[in-house]
Amino acid sequence: MDMDLVVTFAFVATIVLIIVAGIVSFPIARKLGHFLEEAARERAETRLKGGTGRMLAAAPPDLAETLARLEDQLERIETRQAFVERLVEERPAAALESGAARK
Fold first, then answer.
1. Which of 63, 65, 100, 101 could be bridged to 59 by S-S, CB 3.0 to 4.6 A?
2. Which residues of 60-78 are buried (b: 16+ CB within 10 A; e: fewer)?
3. What separation in angstroms does the CA of 89 have from each of 66, 82, 84?
4. CA 54/CA 1 separation, integer angstroms
5. Could you tell me the residue ranges of all domains in the chain?
6. Distance from C-alpha of 88 to C-alpha of 95, rounded to nearest angstrom
7. Nearest 5°: CA angle at 9, between 7 and 14?
């Protein structure tokens, strides 16, 4: 048997095996990728939904108290900001430009 023929056959057989393995494994890898992506999405949603409640329940009491105070302060700031925005909207634009609103 000719040695060149054996080498050519081995080369062609290797290429064919690589192509067949790629064709067979591609759908499997794609399905596995979708499965892993869905599992990661579910894990993230679970952490977002239940994670904060568990974190606050396990937090020390002073931390929960501090968070409550910060929420109250934030609500007051939002109220003040809305009030200032209404005042600015009510002033005529000409009064703001001339500086008459400062008096």
1. 63
2. eeeeeeeeeeeeeeeeeee
3. 35, 11, 9
4. 74
5. 1-58, 60-103
6. 11
7. 95
The number of residues making up the chain comes to 103
Q: Which two tokens stand for residue 14?
A: 């290797």
Measured from the Cβ of residue 96, the count of other Cβ atoms closer than 10 Å reads 12
Is this structure's pTM higher than 0.70?
no
The residue type of 37 is: E
91: left (phi over 0), alpha (psi -120 to 50) or beta: beta
Per-residue pLDDT of the chain (103 residues; tens, 9 = 90+): 688 889 999 999 999 999 999 899 988 999 999 999 998 988 888 887 765 545 555 567 788 788 889 999 999 999 999 999 888 887 766 566 666 555 5
Alpha helices in the chain (DSSP H): 3-58, 61-90, 93-98
What does the block give as tokens for 59?
A: 């937090």
